[in-house]
Amino acid sequence: MDYIFNGVREALKIILSGDAEFVAIVGVSLLIASISTTLAALSGIPCGVLVAHKRFSGRDAVITVLNTFMSLPTVVVGLMVYSFLSRRGPCGSLGLLYTRTAMVIGQWILAFPIVAGLTVAAVSGLDERIHPTALSLGADPAQGFRIFLHEARFGILAALVAGFGRVFAEVGVSMMLGGNIRGYTRNITTAIALETSKGEFALAIALGLVLLSVALAINVLFGLFRRKSL
């Protein structure tokens, strides 16, 4: 048990000292996850709203696919993107493998179905009378649609939180597509895996504490926003 307590003590020292390597690793994770989640929001929210709001042939199949892809294994996504970006793949000439761009692509694929699927659920659960009621009160179609979406804001925000949490804590995509390059693609999860395999628990524990702290902070902020908006 001593090595655990010693590891925690050393981890706290690393966090409080602002160790350069520690800060760089955390920065990579936050940057890649933020970009990936933003791209998932820009593509997933409109897709989710369209699927929920429109009736078209194959709609149930699309929803089923989105719900299925919400639980995609990260290593499967990593393998799929790797096969496209490797030298023998169709996009190998772009030289994207083992770059931050490759990590963003993989994490976007992970986050997109979560954001889109949960947006579908949030919008589908709204009272369909909201939009026509807004129109009857003098709103134009665009205003009525914005009012309709405003009622789903908590569900959509929850979708973004879930998407960010999914990519921030994943390891398969980051390892396979980023290559765990120190100072460039090494993020929290890949660094934890590396340091643990080396028997260096202090940095791994410090990074694990950051993972937990970020998850807690995001959910606390979401709760505060929801209470303030009610």
Q: Class by helix and strand content?
A: mainly alpha
CATH architecture: Orthogonal Bundle
Multimer state: single chain
Order of helices and strands: HHHHHHHHHHH
Query: Total helix count?
Result: 11
Query: What's the main sheet like?
Result: none
In CATH, what is the homologous superfamily? Answer: MetI-like
Count every beta strand, where a strand is a DSSP E run of 2 or more residues.
0
Helix content: over 70%
**Which whole number gives the mean pLDDT?**
88
The CATH class is: Mainly Alpha
**Which range does the strand content fall in?**
under 5%
* The CATH topology: MetI-like fold
- Distance from N terminus to C terminus (CA atoms, Å) equals 47 Å
List the domain count as a whole number.
1
The value of Rg in angstroms is: 21 Å
Overall geometric form? globular
Explain what this protein looks like in three dimensions.
The chain has 230 residues and is mainly alpha-helical. The protein has one domain: Orthogonal Bundle (MetI-like fold), CATH 1.10.3720. It is built from eleven helices and no strands. α3 crosses α5, α4 (74-85) packs parallel to α9 (172-178) and α5 (100-124) runs antiparallel to α8.
Give structural attributes.
230 residues; mainly alpha; MetI-like fold; 11 helices; globular; 77% helix
Task: Produce the secondary structure layout.
Layout: H1 2-17, H2 20-53, H3 59-69, H4 74-85, H5 100-124, H6 130-136, H7 141-150, H8 153-168, H9 172-178, H10 188-198, H11 201-229
